[in-house]
Amino acid sequence: MNADFPVVLDACVLANQRVSDLLLRLAETPRLYLPHWSERILEETGRTLLEKLGWPEELVTYRREQLVAHFPEALVEGYEPIESCVTNDPKDRHVLAAAIRARCEVVVTFNLKDFPESALEPWGVQALHPSKFLANLYSLNGGLVGQRLLEIRANLGRPVPSII
């Protein structure tokens, strides 16, 4: 089963290695959704990994290259003119604009306060916490979500509940 439901992943989600690992695995064949991000989201992710989480620059570069290589269709361009039309938190207007441009109905973010419903509703977009989005994906195909969790567990050598 391949799902073609487009979703924007915010930088805070992409920078969280464990959450993004699971989300990106669920976007691989057979995918449960189509991930999207902008160049600006990727830059913000890189800055967070480098400056806040202390990743080596080579690893940040490698991760970005892998995101682009594995999901070439994810990049959203041409959203900049929309930024002046949205009313959510100014530092995250580019995220909502990218979602509108890519015709995404969902932005997955930890920063729900930056995406008030009053700013999203006119555009038909909703912001979901990663746990809520993952719960939705589980209801769509719990077997695949479970399989991906077991793959992560095998890679990490830890029980499933401790990785999320």
TrEMBL record:
Pfam families linked to this entry: PIN_3
Lineage of the species this protein comes from: Bacteria, Pseudomonadati, Verrucomicrobiota, Verrucomicrobiia, Verrucomicrobiales
Protein name per the record: Putative nucleic acid-binding protein
Top-level division of the source organism's lineage: Bacteria
Organism: Haloferula luteola
Domain PIN: 7-112
